[in-house]
Amino acid sequence: MAFLQEKLLLFCLVICSSLLSLVSSRGSVYQPPSVERLTDRFPRMPITRGMATLFGASNIHLKSNGSYVDIVLDNNSGSGLISKNRYYHGFFSAAIKLPKGFTSGVVLAFYMSNADVFPNNHDEVDFELLGHAKRRQWVLQTNMYGNGSVRTGREEKVYLWFDPTQEFHQYTILWNTHHIVFLVDNIPVREVINNQAISYVYPSKPMSLYATIWDASDWATDGGKYPVNYKYAPFVASLGELKIEGCMTQNISSPTTAECSKNATLSSSNTVEGANYARLSKQQMVGLSWVRRKHMFYSYCNDTKRYKTLPAECSAH
């Protein structure tokens, strides 16, 4: 009997140790609140329909008849995709599964930009997933540049509430004249409201959609402390369930919402400029608050070392 009790105690100790190890490596794990599934409102499109090769063609591998794609970083090259069209406002989403293992210095970016057209005055809206060192898991960084703020990013960082290497999770950018919302599995992780305080840096020109994986050893993991270790290469990220709904436009310099209404790809008139997408719902506000209270660990608005005077939007209500 004593022997069985000792074995049971040993088993409990092993389980508790494993759980503590998981918490210490990933931070506290919480159950997310329920929110509306915005991604269910928009149709999927094949990767091959919406995106084209940007760089690293030999490291881009289409799967499932072009519905999914692997993009790879190895010691020869990273790789990336770019949308076949430019968009003025819209809903942009992809399901992404990140590389496993030791990934310090690796960055997977799902973002919008027009830096190729406006190199000195570009707009950009970023999801950047930063690889981890030691036992810490991937970090999600969001960022925004606009209209001349290209030297000053507006970064925020959160720890994810799941392991992003085990299965696909949805990363979504909603951008319209009212606000920019970053969502993970339909839960808002950040909202940038287009008010007077931020209007001068609010992205206002058409952008392309990008998905890239690359070596950011000089800054990505603890400020460049942990560079990419190619002993663990190749680093493979998988993307699918692509959803793009926005105003396709050739009018790069001065598009209008009227133009977007005319050219919207949805058959209905309820585009992302409509009232249903102008503000967060009560459920979404609860989700946003949950992320920021339990998972956010850096915001530029709290970085008084970096900013002697905080940007105006940080004190706006």
TrEMBL record:
A Pfam family assignment: Glyco_hydro_16
One annotated Gene Ontology cellular component of this protein: apoplast
Domain GH16: 23-239
Leader sequence segment: 1-25
Keyword entries, A-Z: Apoplast, Cell wall, Cell wall biogenesis/degradation, Disulfide bond, Glycosidase, Hydrolase, Secreted, Signal, Transferase
Primary location: secreted
Residues at the active site: 124, 128
UniProt GO molecular function: hydrolase activity, hydrolyzing O-glycosyl compounds; xyloglucan:xyloglucosyl transferase activity
EC number: 2.4.1.207
GO BP term, example: cell wall organization
InterPro entries given in the database record: Beta-glucanase-like (IPR000757), Beta-glucanase/XTH (IPR044791), ConA-like_dom_sf (IPR013320), XET_C (IPR010713), XTH (IPR016455)
Compartments it resides in: Secreted, Cell wall; Secreted, Extracellular space, Apoplast
Free-text description of this protein's post-translational modifications in UniProt: Contains at least one intrachain disulfide bond essential for its enzymatic activity.
Domain of life: Eukaryota
Purpose: Catalyzes xyloglucan endohydrolysis (XEH) and/or endotransglycosylation (XET). Cleaves and religates xyloglucan polymers, an essential constituent of the primary cell wall, and thereby participates in cell wall construction of growing tissues.
Protein family membership: Belongs to the glycosyl hydrolase 16 family.
Protein name as catalogued: Xyloglucan endotransglucosylase/hydrolase
Originating species: Centaurea solstitialis
Lineage: Eukaryota, Viridiplantae, Streptophyta, Embryophyta, Tracheophyta
